[in-house]
Amino acid sequence: MDPNKLGEASDRMSDDGEMASVMGFSGFGKKARTFDLDAIFEQTRRTAIERSQRALEERQTEKEGESSKSAESSLPTQRDKSAAASSRKQESSGDSSSGSDSDSDSELIGPPLPPQYTAQGDEDELVRQSHQPGGTAHSDDEDDEEDAEEDDDEDDNNPVKKIPDTHEITLQHGTKTVSALCLDPSGARLVTGGYDYDVRFWDFAGMDQALQAFRSLQPCECHQIKSLQYSITGDVILVVSGNAQAKVLDRDGFNVMECVKGDQYIVDMANTKGHTAMLNCGCWHPKTKEEFMTCSNDGTVRTWDVQSDKKHKSVFKPRSFQGKKVIPTCCAYSRDGKLVAAGCQDGTIQIWDRNLSVHTKFHCKQAHIPGSDTSCLSFSYDGVTLASRGGDDTLKMWDIRNFRKPVNVATGLTNYFTMTDCCFSPDDKLLVTGTSVKKEEGNGKLVFFDRASFQKVYEIEVTNASVVRCLWHPKLNQIMVGTGNGLAKVYYDPVKSHRGAKLCVVKSQRKERQAETLTQDYIITPHALPMFREARQRSTRKQLEKDRLDPKKSHKPEPPVSGPGRGGRVAAHGGTLSSFIVKNIALDKTDDSNPRAAILRHAKEASDNPYWVAPAYTHTQPEPVFAEESEEDEEAEKEPEWKKRKI
């Protein structure tokens, strides 16, 4: 044989060996076997029928037990038949494989076929078995799927299993009550507000395990945050605080609009442009993205348009049955946005048509105890049921089609806050609310009620403070809770929940790099340079020696003056010149009632010893001649002082 051909064959064999080691099978370059897919699928179906028939017979045998001995005796014959059928399959497969081998005259190419594809059975017998009474064509996999579907049906019938409470994360908002809580419609950002005037923004996708807010601001200065809510598009946030003007912020916290303040001296609140007293609550319209609603202590519920901040859109004025003004403490839109509901301080719940603001459409005058603030109103997703959380420690459910009395009532739910929430689960089968506790007197709870029976089916102990806000997001299937000790907790389930808190708990906490801390820029003022810096004193003794040489620091304080005075200072009655003059004036007993006599008293001394003016005029000044006193003047001088004053 040619040595060149031998070399090429050896190279080809080495290449085939490398390819076989990589791919897991050999036979490259040989003729491939063709398969009839229709025949393979038909054989697979019949094999499945045979297996299901065998499984069914085994189940029937186990159920019958000792009473069905005849069935047990017939079972070996059936097994013999199946064994014979399997042997025939092997023979036929052997014939077919031998035929194919004779056609190809080479080895089979590719991985070996599965056993169910290589078997060729007796078609008539298998078809006959499939048509026997009680025969079925279901496989074991389908039975397992049916069992799984039954378990899913049980979970659907039990709404408690849908509560996502297996895991939780805690966000530290501050130290005071978290009085407002909202999530955007996509569930990407959480916003919290509290009694500390702060509004904090949390981004689940941007946070790590440190769980830090990416922005904190005080949009309303020194006013407590009452309510926060994203619009239906998620691009703006409504901020309701303790002042009379609601604000709208964008997603990053910058101001978009501020409602105008009304004139507090106008009696009819419908004639003012805005609220005149503290706000209590606010919410967005569920269908119109530019419209939102607020309620205030001025006794009105007003709707606004984001595009027009100069005046409100419409005004609703709650009234008692006597026609007196009442204060709304909470407000809400229905799910379709056609109804406006308000809970008032006199215990009533009043509902208006959104387009007719004069008369109420529904009015329940004894919904809650008068004087207790209704803290929350929430419509169900189907729009038929209304839930109200009262300050009288109750949770009530109403059918707005029959609004005279509540459908169900739950009592004993302590409520110390005017913004305690209640909300429905995403499937409308559960109703959730929080309970309040006094300091160090137990734990605040999140309580779940079945909507149909209104029985308490579940509760979660949140923390050792009141549970104020609660929110069950339908898209994330996660529950957000705001507490009285400054915490915002997020409850989730890794299997049932989506995104949200699951995004941040898997990120490890980022460590600061030394290079970043060393390369920071510093601002140096001129007087901070070393040449202007005062020398640092290393010991007290040297400093005392320097102070001894300083005339100002070493000057001895002057002691207090005792006696009539010394060193130019006056004692006894003060050390100022004014006090000295006043003292001497008070001691002067000379009588200056007659000014002429007072002047002439010094005439003889001036003439005998001239000092000031007289020496300059000694040669030119004539001799002064004074008139003599008359008798009347002498008598006037002799009269007593009290007579002179009387005259």
From TrEMBL:
Disordered, as annotated region: 1-23, 51-168, 534-573, 603-647
Which UniProt key words apply to this protein?
Repeat, WD repeat
Q: Which Gene3D superfamilies match?
A: YVTN repeat-like/Quinoprotein amine dehydrogenase
Q: Where is the composition biased (Basic and acidic residues)?
A: 51-69, 78-92, 158-168, 534-558
Q: Which parts of the chain span the membrane according to its record?
A: none
Gene Ontology cellular-component terms listed: nucleus; site of double-strand break
- Spans of the WD repeats are 171-203, 272-314, 321-353, 377-402
User: Which InterPro entries does this UniProt record tie to the protein?
Assistant: WD40/YVTN_repeat-like_dom_sf (IPR015943), WD40_PAC1 (IPR020472), WD40_repeat_dom_sf (IPR036322), WD40_rpt (IPR001680), WD_repeat_GAD-1 (IPR051858)
Is this entry keyworded Iron? no
- Record field: compositional bias (Acidic residues): 140-157, 626-638
Q: Which family does the UniProt entry place this protein in?
A: Belongs to the WD repeat GAD-1 family.
The name this protein carries in UniProt is WD repeat-containing protein 70
Species of origin: Labrus bergylta (ballan wrasse)
